[in-house]
Design brief:
globular, seven-stranded parallel sheet, alpha/beta, homodimer
């Protein structure tokens, strides 16, 4: 019997979950829930139906794991604790600074409902976090570096779009190659924000807009751009659609450290991702976490978990024997 | 109270464990056991003592985790099941093809003794295995590639030393850069043994030995060298000691795969290690696994485990709150 998946929220991530489930034969999508009028939401999966988010409690016995595909700013802080009372849930909450309070709220709700809730699944937080943890565990005398990109930052693209005279925009975060090389050399560099990443912006200006002013507003925007070396390219709407339609991302987690009685030996551990589609890859991680959540719930576990708490074996659709024979 | 560690077998790995424990303040070495005369074994840790391997059962109440530092060919197949009856144990058994039978023997013994035994800890098997597992879980539609090196292969060095006329030798396994690049491109190449790795040999010949014959014997040795492009350099004993004294190693685990409703998006996941000291890095992984074994045993777990079964959080000396705040 397959694991019956429900999807709450149907944007890029929800669509990514449908694609991920297609590649996981032990799972099936049974329903998609949306705040929009269900008749206007067209999904990919044959046999699954779209329902209003208000109807979800009717599905308590039809869904094994509910995947919450809302945003971290306002949706998930409310949704994950709410639905963890009734369902085994998985989310991709990614506001790093607020994870402790999100964890506490979700943990209380999941325990109240006797459910398992896995939060912050994806690649950062998620696979990058796991790599930081494993590297810290095995190389305690060392230093961590995380680089993001090359990839599209939704938050920075949105910030540009809010500038007067901007019709559309896409922003790429790009790791500085020289900084990566310095880290890999084991020299333990102290790197400023500017040393680590570049920001490259592709902007469609409205007709007659003052491009010099737009460029200056972007480059001087506090927090988002002022602390970085930022490049601005003005392009046409057609060029933006043709050359910048994708949502690629990726990055690097590197830990360098020492071993030996007198710290005489150096080591470099590097994990990197190069992703054509950020939401589809994130969805792949979430699908594996949904499998683990289902198994933990079946064993009687309760409360909030992160990928730190999941035995890796729970993520794959293989028996222990198969794993040990083929992956170990 | 710290986790009390015993070491069985004192070679490069045993010494590496001492170094690793020095970087893990929640652990201490209480005793080292050797088959040699204890008076002849000099260890690094002040306060710890060396005992004969025969005395080990006297230490059942003094040791929380016994780390088995013998070889995979003959030591561990006997030692791990034997000691798992009496101790929580960790080993680095690395004969991939024999892991299933080793697991079965250790599992029976550990269950009989009510202990936890973690086998095959290190980097391959170990961290590389984990990366294969995670990547398979999150990108099920893809292909795995593992490359080793650049690093010293003990087995291949030993094979050269057995050739008539060879005084000493060191062999480096080197991944072929073009093969790595082909894999990273996502082109899913089919790679032969020869395509993936080069073998470079540094050989000290005995005086008057026939170097042409030695070189030919190396290059034509079945399994070890015949299927590879192999280079042989004859050097002096002094050069070998000066330039090839270290035990570096490393490698790459890469998985490329597709996502999207029509497999339209590609992804590359890459994990790599660059290690100055293979045994010291392996010891770092083992120390983290010893911490996890201690915790699992404290919770009442029994039987044989691998790194696939260990919740990552059990490997680090941090509380859940600290981990979520600083690593997630």
């Amino acid at each position: 019997m397959s694991i019956r998946i429900g999807i709450m929220g149907y944007g890029n991530l929800g669509r990514g979950i449908e694609c991920a489930v297609k590649n996981n034969p032990d799972m099936e999508i049974v329903a998609v829930f949306s705040r929009r009028n269900p008749d206007t939401v067209k999904i990919l999966t044959e046999g699954a139906k779209v329902y209003s988010a208000d109807e979800i409690l009717n599905f308590k016995d039809e869904i094994d794991v509910l995947i919450l595909c809302g945003g971290s700013a306002t949706d998930l802080p409310a949704q994950t604790p709410e639905y963890a009372k009734y369902f085994t849930v998985v989310d991709s909450f990614d506001t790093h600074a607020k994870i402790p309070e999100h964890f506490a709220a979700v943990d209380a709700a999941a325990k109240e409902g006797g459910n398992v809730a896995v939060i912050s699944c994806g690649w950062d937080p998620g696979m990058f976090s796991l790599n930081r943890l494993y590297s810290n565990a095995i190389l305690p005398n060392g230093k961590d570096y995380t680089f993001w990109g090359k990839g599209v930052s939704q938050g920075h693209s949105d910030a540009i779009r809010r500038i007067d005279g901007v019709a559309d925009a896409k922003q790429y975060t790009i790791p500085v190659e020289a900084a990566l090389e310095a880290v890999r050399s084991g020299s333990n560099p102290e790197l400023s924000v500017r040393d680590k990443h570049l920001r490259e912006c592709f902007v469609v200006a409205e007709e007659g807009a003052d491009k010099a002013r737009i460029e200056s507003e972007i480059k001087n925007m506090p927090n988002y751009f002022a602390d970085y070396d930022t490049t601005v390219h003005f392009i046409t709407k057609e060029e933006l659609c043709r050359d910048h339609a994708g949502i690629p991302h990726g990055g690097f987690v590197i830990r360098t450290g020492k071993s030996g009685w007198n710290n005489e030996n150096s080591h470099v551990i590097e994990y990197s991702l190069k992703l054509d589609s950020n939401p589809e890859f994130t969805a792949g991680v979430i699908a594996a976490c949904a499998r683990a959540a289902y198994r933990m719930k079946s064993e009687g576990a309760k409360g909030c978990k992160t990928m730190f708490d999941i035995p890796p074996a729970y993520l794959v659709a293989m028996s222990g024997e198969e794993m040990r024979a083929h992956l170990l």
